[in-house]
């Protein structure tokens, strides 16, 4: 029986690095009887996102990029196993009915499907996911997104869904006939690498990790300045228009000048989140007992080489109040006195007062005794 391995993410679990490795080593995989197809891969991408978009009924789906019919037609004539990957398959994990047609094709062609799902500690996943969504136009306050996830157990954005109840994912996917489920913990990867861990699962050790591109750090979490710019852009675009971007970005540069900070969920919200998703935490802990324990986990939250970063409250940093502070400073630097002579004592004094007050409000210096070591 042929084997089809479907890597389903989750998002923010090293998927981009793994997909680059699979794409770069396509020919090496073929020599070992593994096909990493080009069907379903969008332009300037390296993963089969179009196949996930077809199942998700996503507006980004394009027939010309290839669909499941073309994939199985190619697989029919290939003597070996096939591997496909897209973190956007995550949207289907709580909707197993969407896999019905794929499962029927697999049965027709005598194909065994194995779903590979990497899970990340829920709190860390939510933090990274919120910052990722800022890149794609999200302008919602952090607390509003937090409350929605607490209520529903998932984050919904257009056609996409990101789940945090991992036991429910397992229950839903277990209903798919004859499918094999393989769950892995992102906190406990073999060799501290999703690529090496993936090689272990497929029993192709060493085939992917030699990839120079894949060993680079991909999708590293950006700093506060970058993320505040996205937050302001997304909100100003909707409310006030593009003309305000320049002043807003200059205001953010002033706010963040010579300050390095790590963005984290405040302790109160973290405790609530961990309590809400305790079953998911326990699910991951149970996985770790079955895997090789590593000294450290892959982390996309590294922001700089400084190992003593103060913490910033994500709830307050991405809030209506912070939005108003950015607007206030943008207004001050647009003041005629400031434009004429930006050394204006009165204007600069007012700006500094606003900045200092904001930093006192958002900094979580007491939570870990002022600093946190590492990331």
Shape: elongated
Give the biggest sheet: 5 strands, parallel
Q: What's the total number of strands?
A: 10
The Rg value, from CA coordinates, equals 23 Å
- Helical residue percent? 40-55%
The secondary structure category is alpha/beta
Mean pLDDT: 87
Secondary-structure element sequence? EHHEHHEHEHHEEHEHHHEHHEHHHHE
Indicate the low-confidence ranges by residue numbers.
292-308, 366-375
Strand content: 5-15%
In DSSP terms (H or I, runs of 4 or more residues), the helix count works out at 17
Oligomer: single chain
What strand order characterises the main sheet? 2-3-1-4-7
N-to-C span: 44 Å
Any descriptors?
375 residues; alpha/beta; 5-stranded parallel β-sheet; 3-stranded mixed β-sheet; 17 helices
């Amino acid at each position: 029986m042929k084997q089809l391995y479907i890597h389903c993410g989750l998002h923010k679990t090293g998927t981009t690095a793994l997909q680059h490795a699979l794409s770069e080593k396509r020919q090496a995989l073929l020599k070992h009887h593994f096909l990493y197809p080009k069907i379903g891969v969008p332009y300037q991408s390296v993963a089969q996102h179009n196949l996930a978009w077809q199942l998700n009924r996503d507006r980004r789906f394009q027939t010309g990029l290839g669909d499941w019919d073309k994939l199985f037609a190619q697989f029919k004539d290939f003597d070996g196993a096939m591997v496909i990957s897209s973190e956007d398959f995550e949207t289907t994990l709580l909707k197993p009915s969407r896999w019905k047609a794929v499962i029927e094709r697999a049965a027709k062609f005598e194909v065994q499907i194995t779903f590979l799902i990497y899970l990340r500690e829920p709190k860390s996943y939510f933090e990274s996911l919120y910052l990722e969504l800022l890149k794609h136009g999200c302008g919602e306050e952090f607390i509003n997104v937090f409350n929605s996830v607490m209520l529903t157990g998932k984050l919904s954005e257009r056609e996409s869904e990101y789940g945090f109840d991992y036991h429910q994912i397992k229950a839903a996917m277990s209903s798919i006939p004859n499918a094999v489920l393989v769950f892995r913990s992102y906190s406990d990867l073999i060799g501290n690498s999703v690529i090496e861990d993936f090689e272990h699962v497929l029993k192709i050790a060493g085939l992917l990790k030699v990839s120079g591109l894949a060993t680079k750090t991909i999708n590293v979490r950006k700093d506060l300045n970058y993320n505040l710019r996205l937050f302001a852009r997304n909100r100003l675009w909707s409310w006030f228009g593009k003309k305000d971007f320049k002043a807003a970005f200059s205001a953010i540069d002033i706010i963040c000048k010579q300050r390095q900070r790590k963005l984290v969920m405040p302790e109160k919200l973290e405790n609530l989140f961990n309590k809400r998703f305790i079953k998911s935490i326990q699910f991951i802990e149970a996985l770790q007992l079955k895997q090789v324990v590593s000294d450290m986990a892959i982390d996309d939250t590294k922001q700089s080489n400084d190992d003593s970063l103060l913490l910033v409250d994500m709830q307050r940093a991405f809030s209506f109040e912070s939005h108003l502070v950015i607007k206030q400073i943008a207004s001050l630097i647009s003041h005629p006195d400031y434009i004429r002579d930006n050394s204006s004592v009165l204007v600069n004094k007012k700006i500094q007062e606003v900045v200092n007050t904001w930093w006192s409000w958002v900094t979580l210096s007491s939570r870990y005794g002022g600093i946190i070591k590492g990331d």
